[in-house]
Each structure stands twice: as structure tokens, then as C-alpha cells.
């Protein structure tokens, strides 16, 4: 991941604090974030809002590098935030990095 020195990284938690194949919610005024952990311990962060009808992605099922929205079963790619065909839309992504088992998030 190419990161600029000016990116304001915020310590979130340990990777182990996020359930494997699950998520953790980061509450904020501008909209909650869902931080996901895959079976391979890769961590992703998306706005906790499905691009379809605003469903809580944090309550969805993680499989591979995809989360399925609990409301209408849209599949959202955790890497890009894009809905998978035939659905169209995009959930905002946030940069994440993991260092020594600790998760850092950029809200920039």
C-alpha cells in the first residue's frame, strides 16, 4: 500500500479485536465505519452503509473478500467497495494498514 507521510493514521485496535469473518463498528458523526477481517486476517474499512438502501454492512456476512448486506443480499467487494454485478453502486472505502498486529485507519 502506497502511503504518504501526511496521511493521519489513527490506531483502532488489535487485529484480534475484530472477529474473523466479521466486523467492528467505528462510530463517528460523519457516518459509522465497518472494519472487516477476512479468514486470511486481511483488514478492510468501508462506510457502514450499503449503496443500495443504506443497510448496515457491519451486520453482513464476510466471505472471501466480500461482504453480503443483511438487508437485500447485495455483495460488496471489500477491496474496492464496489457492488458486484448485476448490482451497481459503491460503498466508500477508507485506507487501513496493519503493523505488528495493530490496525490503523485513515479518515482523510
Automatic annotation (TrEMBL):
It comes from the Bacteria. Transmembrane segments: none annotated. One of its GO terms (molecular function) is metal ion binding. Pfam families: Rieske. Keywords: 2Fe-2S, Iron, Iron-sulfur, Metal-binding, Nitrate assimilation, Oxidoreductase. It comes from Chitinimonas taiwanensis DSM 18899. This is Nitrite reductase (NADH) small subunit. One of its GO terms (biological process) is nitrate assimilation. InterPro entries: Rieske-like_NirD, Rieske_2Fe-2S, Rieske_2Fe-2S_sf. The lineage of its organism: Bacteria, Pseudomonadati, Pseudomonadota, Betaproteobacteria, Neisseriales. CDD domains: Rieske_NirD_small_Bacillus. Residues 10-105 form the Rieske domain.
Amino acid at each position: 500500500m502506497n502511503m504518504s507521510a501526511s496521511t493521519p493514521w489513527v490506531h483502532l485496535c488489535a487485529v484480534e479485536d475484530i472477529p474473523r469473518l466479521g466486523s467492528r463498528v467505528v462510530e463517528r458523526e460523519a457516518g459509522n465505519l465497518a472494519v472487516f477481517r477476512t479468514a486470511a486476517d486481511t483488514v478492510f474499512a468501508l462506510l457502514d452503509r450499503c449503496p443500495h438502501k443504506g443497510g448496515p454492512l457491519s451486520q453482513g456476512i464476510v466471505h472471501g473478500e466480500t461482504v453480503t448486506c443483511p438487508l437485500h443480499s447485495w455483495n460488496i467487494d471489500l477491496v474496492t467497495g464496489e457492488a458486484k454485478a448485476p448490482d451497481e453502486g459503491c460503498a466508500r472505502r477508507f485506507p487501513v494498514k496493519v503493523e505488528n498486529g495493530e490496525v490503523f485507519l485513515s479518515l482523510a
